[in-house]
Amino acid sequence: MARTVRIGNREVGEGQPCFVIAEIGINHNGDLELAKRLIDAAKDSGADAVKFQKRTVEVVYTPDELARPRESPFGTTNGDLKRGLEFGYEQYAEIDRHCKNREILWFASCWDEGSVDFMEQFNPPCYKVASACLTDDQLLRHHHKMKRPVILSTGMSTMDQIRHAARVLDTDELVLLHCTSTYPSAPEELNLRMIRTLIAEFPNHPIGYSGHEVGLQTTVAAAALGACVVERHITLDRAMWGSDQAASVEPQGFERMVRDIRAVESAMGDGVKRVYDGERPIMAKLRRVN
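Given the sequence above, the corresponding structure tokens read:
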């Protein structure tokens, strides 16, 4: 049995209820009030945590990338867009306050070392490492220094790269998420059986699933296959402006997904064959020989 990892007030791992993460990411579109509405929607839908993304724009992107023409509500360059989507201290302090009031955990994917240092001041329960950062050994080592649990997504990565990243992170407090990094992901590319492969490969770490597909049934199937963490993007409206909105789940869908995951958990049982009390009257009525 895989060991558990404690994230905030929750034990996460085999034998525990699925830990459901609502990724807000950049779906707040740089609007703090929208971010707070997304936090409320996640909490009301039954999510255990919300996740944001944090970047130091000038570190993550080259000057040429920032200067590239790109129309957005923030201006005419890619840099205008990237800077417009970043929250600073005051906004995250309000997010921290709001999440505490709503009693929901929050943390972030940090794409550079300075962003990790920035998030440390909020005492996060864990860190998320995005699939895009899985091969960044320097960033992984910086996460290791913080001595906090790490959730690592494994999209667009080989098994050798995943093994290497786990060794670099060098922590028992590691959760691995199977992931396909297309937005949205086609069903035939989800490869959900990889969840079982990761469980066999990393028996001492909880294994979960980060999905970007359209629809909910495959995410519920991931929980049935043993994912003890499930992460999906949340949005108020999939038609809203923003690059991740179309691969996100609206509040009513998110609530339905959590409900169905909980039903699957209840239905899985322990694998020990037994005759239930409710079956006995049927047995007496229908079975000629007992």
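Residues 251-268 form the longest helix (18 residues). Try to locate this feature in the token string yourself.
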